[in-house]
Amino acid sequence: GNPTLIGVGVVCAGLGGLEVTIREHFAGYRSHTTLLAGAVFVLTTGLLFYAAGQVLAVALAIGAVAFAVAFYLARRAFQRASGGLSYKISSRS
What is the pTM of this model? Predict the structure, then answer.
């Protein structure tokens, strides 16, 4: 019933899922480009809005640019790791 403990649990679960996502993506197993870029967007926007005290509209705009850059870089990294594929839906051949 403690909200702080629930928040810590949610953050730990999210970090665990993100860790698996990062390993699968950069090993070329499955493409998680959008999820990784979305995590960059949330982190950037949250830091700018809460930590830096930036106006929400500006934080969202900068977060959108960070998403686009992260998406491009993550897609390129997956292409290198998977042998040229830009996405992989299933690991079965």
Answer: 0.84
